[in-house]
């Protein structure tokens, strides 16, 4: 079997990376659409922006999923915390504009 040219391999891998990045952007957009609705619901009903107990459950679940998927669980937790910080910022903005 002939080996693939390195330039061709790089192009092929980058094409896959581009598809994955596009999927991640769409997935994140969907997640923020849902969390923004949660933010308005909380603001309308005087509920606190953050829910540490829920976050703790999510971290445990995501760490376990990351292990199964051969992804660093510490990275999964860091990524989750980064996203949640932005969600809380949106929730606080929603509450302040009520
Ligand atoms: C979206 C919510 O609000 C916050 C954001 C969370 C998230 O982005 O997953 C989880 C818990 C809350 O701190 C929620 O309460 O479900």
From TrEMBL:
UniProt xrefs under SUPFAM superfamilies: Chorismate mutase II
* Record InterPro entries: Chorismate_II_sf, Chorismate_mutase-related, CM_bact, CM_dom_sf, CM_II_prokaryot
- The UniProt record lists the EC number as 5.4.99.5
Q: Which SMART domains does the protein's record reference? A: CM_2 (SM00830)
- What are the UniProt keywords, alphabetically? Isomerase
Judged by the first EC level, this protein's enzyme class is isomerase
Q: Where is the Chorismate mutase domain?
A: 4-95
Full protein name: Chorismate mutase
Q: Which organism is it from?
A: Microbacterium psychrotolerans
């Amino acid at each position: 079997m002939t080996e693939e040219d390195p330039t061709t391999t790089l192009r092929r891998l980058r094409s896959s990376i581009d598809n994955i990045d596009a999927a991640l952007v769409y997935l994140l957009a969907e997640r923020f659409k849902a969390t923004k609705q949660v933010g308005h619901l909380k603001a309308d009903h005087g509920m606190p922006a953050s829910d540490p107990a829920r976050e703790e459950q999510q971290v445990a679940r995501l760490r376990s999923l990351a292990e199964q998927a051969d992804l660093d669980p510490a990275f999964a937790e860091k990524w989750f915390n980064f996203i949640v910080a932005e969600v809380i910022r949106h929730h606080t903005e929603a509450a302040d504009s009520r």
